[in-house]
Amino acid sequence: MARIQDVMSHECEWISPEASVADAARVMAEKDIGFLPVGENDRLIGMITDRDITVRAVGQGKSPDSTSVRDIMTPKTFYCYDDQDVEDVCNNLGDIQVRRLPVVNREKRLVGVVSLGDLAQSATRANIGQTEQQITSKALLGRQAVA
After folding, report:
1. pLDDT at 77
2. What is the value of pTM for the model shown?
3. Ramachandran region of residue 37, left (φ > 0), alpha (ψ -120 to 50) or beta?
4. Is the CB of residue 9 less than 8 Å from the CB of residue 112?
5. d(Cα 35, Cα 49) in Å, to the nearest integer?
6. Nearest residue to 79 (alpha-carbon basis) of 42, 48, 47, 104
């Protein structure tokens, strides 16, 4: 069974809670991403999304240059472990209604990100393999019946 570490993106940007919202927006724009994990002392402490910036900062008249990431981030963050089964994480994503999750190791250090796209590609590969196996099994059974 596939593990999250097999399908996740290992390259992961993250940002300090003391960085400005403007800094977070710049990183998101440069990397073409919609969220950043927030880390402190090598640990995941929250998340900031492009929506957080729009709704919690700009929409409330806060200056992106003087507002810290900590002021608008979501501190309660869902995450998954790198050694979890892909199927379990897929089920959890549906339950918690998120499109991407930070991935941590068992020491809770950020090691990557997994998105719905990563999981969809993994599921497609698994389904193709399973379908091939079913076709091959049926073909072999058919040959045995003829012989």
Report:
1. 87
2. 0.76
3. beta
4. yes
5. 4
6. 104
94 versus 9: which is more confidently predicted? 9
Which residues on neighbouring strands pair with residue 80, listed in sequence order? Answer: 103
Look up tokens 């997994």; give the residue: 114
What pLDDT, in 10s, does the model give residues 45-94?
999 999 999 999 999 999 999 999 999 999 988 999 999 999 888 888 77
Cα 90–chain centre separation: 11
Residue with tokens 């900031």: 48
Give me the helix-helix angle, 116-146 and 86-96, nearest 10°: 130
Contact 12, 104 (CB under 8 A): no
- Going along the chain from its start, the domains and CATH numbers come out as 4-146 (3.10.580.10)
